[in-house]
Amino acid sequence: MIRRRPVLRPLLTALLAGVVPLLAALTLAAPAARAAALTEVTGFGANPSNLRMYVYRPDGAPAHPAVVVAVHYCTGSGPAFYSGTEFAALADRYGFLVVYPSATREGGCFDVSSPQALRRGGGSDPVGIMSMVTYAEQRYGADPDRVYVTGASSGAMMTNVLLGDYPDVFKAGAAFMGVPFGCFATTDGSSWNSACADGVLTKSPQQWGDLVRAAYPGYSGPRPRMQLWHGTEDTTLRYPNLGEEIKQWTDVLGVSGTPAATDHPQSAWTRTRYGGTGDRAPVEAVSVQGAGHTLPAAGMAARAIAFFGLDSATTPPTDPPTTPAAACRVTYTASTWNTGLTASVTLTNTGAAPVDGWALTFTLPAGQTLTSGWNAVFASSGGTVTARDAAYNATLAPGASTTLGYQATHTGNTGAPASFSLNGALCQVG
Q1: Which residues are catalytic?
Q2: What is the DSSP string of 29-85?
Q3: Mind giving me the DSSP string for 287-353?
Q4: Of 52-56, 134-138, 234-238, 368-372, which range is least confident?
Q5: Fold assignment, 8-308
Q6: Which end of the chain has the lower number of beta carbons within 10 A, N or C?
Q7: For the chain, domain boundaries
Q8: Is the pTM of this model over 0.85?
Q9: Are 408 and 340 in contact (CB under 8 A)?
Q10: Percentages helix, strand, coil for the chain, rounded to the nearest 5?
Q11: For residues 68 and 377, what is the distance between their CA atoms, to the nearest angstrom?
């Protein structure tokens, strides 16, 4: 476990700037009642850094489900990442198991910098997370051939670390706002590397690749695929880190660093694929124009699950709508004043089957901040809001509607969210 050092203060100052809005929003309400529930597991195996383990196993999961390890940001926790992201709703839809590790050291960051963390079986957090994976396989019958990892910020760094330390365990990863494996490496017990965070630490593709290969010397088996996400305006872990990650993983996977395909799944997204042009390319990178340290936003978790191959559709869409169309309609109205607004959102089931448990996700326009909500359980990550059913309105019969509402502050932009997604799929608006 990393010893506490004074240098931790800039780490917390920087990373708190990206997650304070999320933490404030998460205090609005506890997670909504669901058929399945987040469960804490104790005594799961070797755990040198005293991590906590939480599992979400959806009702109706198959006998041998895939596993997605979802790793939180600094100052976060497993339960906060469960509440503030779409992975649990996607697990309900597709039947995979989600493991949420929870860091317990001061600051809530994962160890991605110590020599112990950067080698297979070396100790610290990666060993504890591997114990969680093994427990999931033994306790829940999880499929060892379908184990994946994703994370945001500190969790994205851990995603890079786990793919380097355990390439024979993880089949693919999706890192939101991370840095390359080994970029944060330190030897003095500190956990912050300013050169890496500021995006000024550059290496050749082979140099980056050699750091990954050194984590498991002698390994010659297949390597996991990697999906990378970064906002161009990220001031915490700066945008040049995306290019360094691309260098690293294209080298590790032995593919060209020149994109094989480039497209724009959404207007602000530029997606490049390396070593292939399809949905399961060895390396995929998505640059999000104008985004800060606020990922994943609405729809991005679904893209990660599609990259893993855990979605039911064989080919995720490449043009708007960016997620499958849901049998739902949303009507939005708002009352606004100088610095605030009150919004009313009516959700209607337009399908032929009941909706049993729902999560409605949308992104607030720039400058708006959620302050409260009613008739649903609200959680917010940056500007992305997820409203889950409030138990008493969990079931919507065909043609039935429910109305929820929220209050938000604004800095001048009083517009409506551009889209709404029900359980990961876009609704008709109007």
Answers
A1: 153
A2: -PPPP-SS-EEEE---S--TT--EEEEE--TT--SS--EEEEEPPTT--HHHHHHHS
A3: EETT--S--S-TTHHHHHHHHHT-SSSSS--SSSS-SPEEEEEEEEEEEE-SSEEEEEEEEEE-SSS
A4: 368-372
A5: Rossmann fold (3.40.50)
A6: C
A7: 8-308, 325-429
A8: no
A9: yes
A10: 25, 25, 50
A11: 24
